[in-house]
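Exercise 7 asks you to align residues with tokens for two separate proteins.
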Amino acid sequence: MKLERFLATGISAAAILLLAPTLVDALDAAPMLPGPRHEQHGAIRLVAQPLRELAQRSELRIGTAVDAQSLQNETTYRDTIAKMFSTVTPENVMKWDTVEPVQGQLDFSAGDQLVEFARSHGQLVRGHVLVWHSQLPSWLTSGTYTPDELRQIMCQHIQQEATHFRGKIWQWDVVNEAMEEDGTMRQSFWFKNLGPTFIADAFRCAHRADPKALLFYNDYNIEWSNPKSDAVYAMVKQLVSQGVPIDGVGIQGHLDLQYPFSGPVSIAQNMQRFQDLGLFTAVTEADVRMMLPADDLKLEAQAAGYSAMLQGCLLTERCISFTVWGFTDAHSWVPYAFSGQGAANLLDENYQPKAGYEAVATDLALVKREHQP
């Protein structure tokens, strides 16, 4: 009945009952998965068990980051995204250096194409990202501005982008990665020039531009309680107390098999404290990288990582989406960012499912959540 998977990852019997109001009904209704089914598609067989369909039991949105060039040029990549996921996140085409490479000259064409793709396939869009310390245009970082001028430039860019996509974005990552590992503020371009108030200002500007979009703070290594996640919690708690229009916290979920990671209960407990502030949570960039070459043991450990993050989300009532940062090893940022590492995604280079995919599919098939926000 697959109950062993939940018990093996350290989830308690009480927690399982939280996952499904009537566990027996959930197990009986869950489709048995003897192994992923496939259908022929040219030279590559596509997985025929769409995660978006399995996720309907839990009313959770399942998404992926999308490389715009591959979406445009590769049929298998495009068809898999259309079939498998219910949300999409742009990898790069909504970032500042792409949207406004020259001051005052904004180009939304690539973002528009992704939004139209999502609309045509019944998908929601996570906008990524309005304010970040990286991928900023040189005209901005090399310019000389007073704090008031820079604050105006930041707000103007936010408002122009969020206004352009108004009504088309479900969640915006408004501010990304503003905290260091030790819980101090990152000494970023924004912090050095504007101080910590740039975060509240960014959320207020985004809300004015698109009042209906859910506005998220997004960061990595905050999956469970640690100095960084504690600092993020203190920061967003202060924002909430100040009436800043923040709606949620995005927990990226970039795991590495070289380092230990917590089980689903610890992740859920961490998410719960953000929920107690009245905020939504989401896993926004999940992947589990490993030293190459991959082998069966590493792939099983990878599956445990994906499952822990997903179960942690499913245990948290206001965790509303689970997004992987790329779904196939054929298109992954990991080998370029981490020397000697890779194989971080749910499908391999040939779009074939790995143990991580099977774990995610099984967990989704087992769980029914009710009254999802």
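Second protein for Exercise 7:
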Amino acid sequence: MSKSSGDKDAVKRIYMDHAATTPVDPAVVEAMLPYFTQYFGNASSLHVFGREAYNAMETARANIAKLIGAEREEIIFTAGGTESDNIAIKGIAFKNRSKGTHIITSPIEHPAVIETCTYLETTGFHVTYVPVDRYGLVDLSELEKAVTKETILITIQHANNEIGTIQNIESIGEIAQEKRVRFHTDAVQATGKIPIDVKKAHVDLLSIASHKFHGPKGVGALYVRKGTALDPLIHGGGQERGLRSSTENIPGIVGFGKAAEIAYARMIPDGQRVSAMRDSIINGVLNQIPLSYLNGHPTQRLPNNVSFRFDGIEGESLVLSLDGKGVAASTGSACSSKKLRPSHVLMAIGLNEVQAHGSLRLTLGRENTEEEVSYLLEVLPEVVSKMRAISPLWQKKIEVEKWRGKVSVHPEAR
């Protein structure tokens, strides 16, 4: 835990919103610094300054490829996960329009996928949203049935950014391969946290963002399997195999590569330690707070993700109350946190609007400690109890429970 100022009485600050972004690892910063000043060349230049930049970029490319089981030349650098998703989905769509105009996705995708598919629908493409169960898992039988002769792409995320559920991408990849349909997965939340093997999973395209695993912001990558043809979105000097023309961000790419190297080496021990803290939070909250529920799959979930919902609580107010106690959390995706409508993910898994508005997402990182988890489990029940005491939603819930004769199981209602 760190303090917000030099004052000895300052509120301790605990960061539990790593799904939104992560602090850059000091080793990553150290690796990047020389490429702002000493090795500043353009990687497309033929002289020694350009070759230094190019060699550093290719080393980073190899580290990122190793992290997901790809070949170095299959990694295309972008500005982040959103751009990678756009290049993958629009690139396949526009390249294959003559073969078909049908795309399959799920209703719980990140906005970078949902909004891209929505845009394509305005240009003549057709999108099928395959349903998910109450845990957020895609119905594989429905997915297989949705494929038609017009289908050119299946795009299903590897792990959900809000509820942490991990999809069975190997099974999805097998369906795509059997049906001869390209398969893209948004692996922004999964990469660096759980093992990924793009070959084994039959993935054709995979999106990554550096800042989700302690790398710099503003840099990402798209894995493009050899032989997968795309239309480029950006035209220019032909960098990145002609798929993403623009002078490469060498300092960012170097940092991205270093973050990938560290994630590859630390993934298993970090995952074990973080998942133990995750389980402590889940057990502590569900045992201490009445009418609290876990969102997402109980076991098939990211090691760092915890998503709850609480009856009688409004999620945004809960986040602000926790922030006042020094704990940084969120209600869901940072990319849509300022939108007042309920989470499309929580609605898709069967919650109503009131339930969806009562959500809390806690996402851990390698720097979190058991001491911080203990502090969270101390303050969260207190915050929820105080909020429920003044909540009309909670009072209405209590009246219903009294009518049903169940009030005795809710200590806060007494």
